[in-house]
Structures are given as structure tokens and as C-alpha cells.
Specification:
It is a single chain. With 538 residues, this protein is mostly helical. The chain has a domain at 65-279. Helix content is 85%, strand content 0%. It has 21 helices and no strands.
Length: 538
């Protein structure tokens, strides 16, 4: 009996032991998985912290500004080189053809972001679950925009009466999905003021786009070189962003407090969409009424001035919106930080736009070539808008950094109606009339409205903004007058010789005025002190 029971017992033990081992293995596997998840969560949380920035916010802001401005100098050089090369390899028709499509796609471009990157940057505290939800929302909206643009390709070709636009539209629609997957990664880099990483991404992706565009143009690809440049830039930006930013989204989750971020983003998006819709109406009208060649002249004149201006403003926005957002609880420090930068921007804008207006023709001919002379007058018409854009843009920081999304939406909606009306008024006079009417509306309506609504509440008041404007406006008058009078004396010389003589004279006149006037001299001293502090922080 004993001999029978012992083997049975041994059999039972052999059967039970594997189960115990499986249970232990499962438990240890679950513990290991839980540990890995915890490590991933901790690593992702590191991308959300901002408390370490406050100890030396001024130094970080100055050094970040220096990095971003260096990156913008590189991007400006790339833009200038590509503009000069492509303007000589391609025709106004090529640029106008692509501009017809990008005008329509720009209407939906604001939905790629949906204001959610700004929400991520602006919040004093945010969780990994919230940012992950915003990532998936951005990706879903970008995918929807991609489908809408692709489906609208036949309508775009019909509207402009050009079947070539169908294939261009279909290919450019993919840029929505590509760029939409980088929105939250870029926002987290800005939130932590990691502007060296952002500079690497921006310059690297732009270099890839310029290289592809120029190589395709040299091989005779025509307008397809512009399409290839845009696609290459977006793909390079995706690869670089995901490589540099180690943050990775988790699965969507409920009850994470995302609703208030969506509300803030929705207000910003509504205002930006209305503004984008208004701003693209000029290309839409000119392309429909006057054709691709006229639109080519108009779009190049606009890009020659507005694109470098956007490149100048984007990094400043990226640096100072997070900095001001961190100072919401310190109103005096907020006010002094804003006004110091705003004065520097106003002084710079008045100085250079005065020179650009006086030298519009030689500047256009040197950069684009002799076949683009019709764009020179349009370029001159845009210079007043170039003066107003940075002033209104900086005023918008007050809305964003204070979380006043609704106020910004209302302000942009009113300004958008004014912008569309100015285009309609200027349209009978051709592209020059449209550019001039747009500039006039900026100076007479857009800037005053921004000043009024932005200064109604918060540490910075409307009177503060107007005082800065009036204090530095004489710079524009003097610089323009001196540069224009000098240009009259050398107008028979070659365009490059005119620039080499007149531009230094205008800059010297501005420098002399800055040194002789107290407020302007104080701004220059503050800039010098910022450079000194940057050197110290290094």
C-alpha cells in the first residue's frame, strides 16, 4: 500500500510544482512590467517639469533668445539663398501655381496645432496623461485635415481653372499628417525652454528642404521642386523631433483634466482660423482674378518680406511666451520683462522697415533678379505691414500668456473682417493695390485694436503700448527720409551699388538718432547688458 501511495504522491507533486512555478513567473513578469511602466512614467514626467527654470529665468531667457536668434540667422541665410537660386531657376508661373494650393491649405493649417501646443506651454502644471491625450487629438485632427485637403483637390483645380493643381494638392495634403505628429513634442521642448534642441530641428529640417528643392530645380522639375522642398522639410522635421525629444505618448485616458486645455485651445484655434482665412484671401482673389503669373509676383514680394519676419518672430514667441507664462503670479516682473522686449522690437521694426521702403526696388532686383521688377512696388506696399506685424504680434503675447483665449479670438475675428475688406478695396487696383490696402488697415485699425483689447486688463496697459509706439516712431521717419534722399542721388547706379551705398547711410542715421535720444539709448543699453549677461552665463 505504501509502495502504491508514494509514486502517486510523487506524481501529484510533479503536477503541482509547474503550476506554482508558472504563478511565480507570472507575478515576477507583472512586477517587471509594472517597474518598466513606472520607469517610463518617471522619464516622461521629466519632460513636464518647469520648476527648475524659475531660479534663473532671466538668464535662461537671454541664453534661449541668443540660441533661437542664431538659429534664425541660419534659417534666414537658407531662405535668402534658396530664394535667390529658385527665383532664377523657376518662373513666376511656377511660384504662383504652388501658391494657389498653399493658400487653400493654409486655411486648415491652424487645425494641425489646434491651439493645443500653446495650452501645453502656457499651463503652470500639466500631467503626462493630459499631454498624451493632446497628442492623439492633434494627430486625429491632422489626419482629418489631410483627408479634407485631398478630397478638395478637384474643387481647387476647378476654382483656378488649372488641372495641374490636382496632383499638387494631393501630394501637399500629406504634410498635415506628418507635421501633426510633432506638435506636442515641440511644445514640451518649448515648455522646458530647450531651444538648442529646437534650433537643431528647425535648421536641420529646413536645410533638407532647401537642398531637395534646389536639386530638383536644377534638374528641371519646375514647380515640383517647390512641392518636393515642402515635403522633405516636413519629413526631416518629424525624424529629428522624435529623435531629439525622448517623450513618448501613452494610450488615451479619461478624466485626466484635458477638457479645460481643449477649451483654451479651441478659443485660440477659432481666432487663428479666422485670421488665417482672412490673410489667405488676398492670394485667393488675385489668383482667381489675375492668374498664376500675377500671383507669382505678389507671393514672392510677400514672402521676401513676410517670411523673414515670421522667422524672426517665431523664435521670440517660442522663448517669451513660456517665460511670461511662468511670471503670471509676479505682475511687476511680468510688466517690466514684457516692456523691455517690446521696446527693443519696436525700435528694430521702425529702423529696418524705413530702410526697406526706401530701397524696395534695388532690394527686390538684387534678391530675385531682373525678371521680377513688377514685384518691387508690391514689396514696397508690404513694408508698412511689416512695421505693424511685430507690434501686434507682441501684443498677442499678453492674451496667450495670461490665458485670455476668448479675448484673443474676438480681437482676431474683428481684425480678420477688416483685413478681408481691405483686400476687396484694393483688388481693382491689382496686386499693388491689395498690398497697399492691407498695410494701411494694419496701421490704422489692427494695431490700435490690439493695443486697446490687450491692455484692458493685466499688468500691461494700453497706455504702455502706445507710449512705446510714439516714443520710437521718429526713428522710422528719419531713417526713411535719409535713405530715400541718398537713393535719389545714386538712382542711376546698378541695384547692388545702390544697396551698398544707401543701406549703410540709413543705418548710420538710425544709430546716430538712437545715441542722441535718451529712451532709444536706454533700449540699446539694455540690449548691450543682455549680451553681457549672456556672455557671463556661458
Amino acid at each position: 500500500m505504501r509502495h502504491i501511495l508514494l509514486p502517486a504522491l510523487r506524481i501529484d507533486m510533479k503536477i503541482e510544482n509547474p503550476r506554482a512555478l508558472d504563478s511565480e513567473t507570472a507575478q515576477s513578469g507583472a512586477a517587471a512590467a509594472s517597474s518598466i511602466e513606472a520607469q517610463d512614467e518617471d522619464r516622461n514626467q521629466e519632460h513636464l517639469k518647469t520648476s527648475h527654470l524659475l531660479s534663473n529665468l532671466k538668464g535662461r531667457t537671454i541664453s534661449s533668445g541668443a540660441v533661437t536668434m542664431s538659429a534664425q540667422a541660419g534659417k534666414f541665410a537658407l531662405t535668402l539663398i534658396s530664394t535667390m537660386i529658385l527665383a532664377r531657376l523657376l518662373t513666376p508661373h511656377d511660384f504662383g501655381l504652388v501658391a494657389m494650393v498653399t493658400t487653400v491649405t493654409s486655411f486648415l493649417r491652424v487645425f494641425k496645432d489646434a491651439g493645443l501646443s500653446t495650452a501645453t506651454v502656457q499651463q503652470e502644471s500639466i500631467t503626462h496623461a493630459q499631454v498624451s491625450n493632446l497628442f492623439w487629438i492633434n494627430l486625429a485632427i491632422s489626419g482629418l485635415c489631410c483627408l479634407i485637403v485631398a478630397a478638395s483637390a478637384p474643387a481647387i483645380a476647378w476654382f483656378y481653372r488649372d488641372p495641374q493643381l490636382m496632383s499638387v494638392t494631393l501630394l501637399l495634403s500629406t504634410t498635415f499628417l506628418i507635421s501633426g505628429s510633432t506638435v506636442q513634442h515641440q511644445a514640451l521642448l518649448k515648455r522646458q525652454m530647450r531651444f538648442k534642441a529646437i534650433a537643431l530641428i528647425d535648421v536641420g529640417s529646413m536645410s533638407a528642404g532647401v537642398l531637395v528643392g534646389v536639386l530638383m530645380a536644377l534638374r528641371g522639375c519646375g514647380y515640383w521642386s517647390l512641392v518636393g522642398s515642402s515635403l522633405s522639410m516636413e519629413i526631416a522635421g518629424l525624424l529629428l523631433t522624435w529623435s531629439v525629444s525622448r517623450w513618448r505618448p501613452r494610450s488615451p485616458s479619461q478624466r485626466s483634466g484635458t477638457r479645460r486645455l481643449l477649451t483654451f485651445g479651441a478659443n485660440l484655434t477659432a481666432g487663428s482660423f479666422v485670421s488665417s482665412l482672412a490673410r489667405g484671401t488676398d492670394n485667393l482673389l488675385i489668383g482667381r482674378v489675375y492668374g498664376s503669373e500675377s500671383l507669382g509676383f505678389y507671393s514672392r514680394a510677400s514672402a521676401l518680406l513676410m517670411r523673414p519676419l515670421e522667422q524672426f518672430l517665431m523664435p521670440i514667441n517660442a522663448v517669451f511666451i513660456p517665460a511670461l507664462s511662468r511670471l503670471q503670479s509676479q505682475p511687476e516682473r511680468y510688466r517690466s520683462t514684457f516692456l523691455r522686449l517690446y521696446e527693443a522690437m519696436a525700435l528694430t521694426a521702425f529702423l529696418f522697415t524705413g530702410i526697406f521702403l526706401a530701397l524696395a526696388r534695388p532690394l527686390t532686383l538684387v534678391l530675385l533678379g531682373p525678371k521680377w521688377e513688377q514685384a518691387a512696388v508690391i514689396f514696397g506696399g508690404f513694408t508698412i505691414a511689416a512695421l505693424c506685424v511685430p507690434l501686434a504680434n507682441a501684443s498677442a503675447w499678453l492674451f496667450i500668456s495670461q490665458g485670455r483665449g476668448r479675448d484673443m479670438m474676438v480681437t482676431q475675428s474683428i481684425n480678420s473682417c477688416v483685413t478681408i475688406l481691405s483686400f476687396i478695396i484694393g483688388l481693382p487696383f491689382g496686386p499693388v493695390g491689395v498690398a497697399t490696402a492691407f498695410s494701411a488697415s494694419n496701421l490704422l485699425i489692427r494695431v490700435p485694436l490690439y493695443y486697446y483689447r490687450a491692455g484692458r486688463c493685466g499688468p500691461v496697459k494700453t497706455t504702455d503700448l502706445w507710449m512705446v509706439f510714439c516714443r520710437h516712431f521718429p526713428i522710422w521717419i528719419i531713417v526713411f527720409a535719409v535713405t530715400w534722399l541718398t537713393h535719389v542721388l545714386v538712382v542711376n547706379l546698378a541695384p547692388l551699388s545702390q544697396l551698398l551705398i544707401c543701406a549703410p547711410v540709413g543705418l548710420l542715421a538710425g544709430a546716430a538718432l538712437i545715441c542722441s535720444l535718451g529712451p532709444q539709448r536706454r533700449v540699446a543699453i539694455h540690449l548691450f547688458e543682455a549680451l553681457q549677461e549672456l556672455k557671463k552665463n556661458r
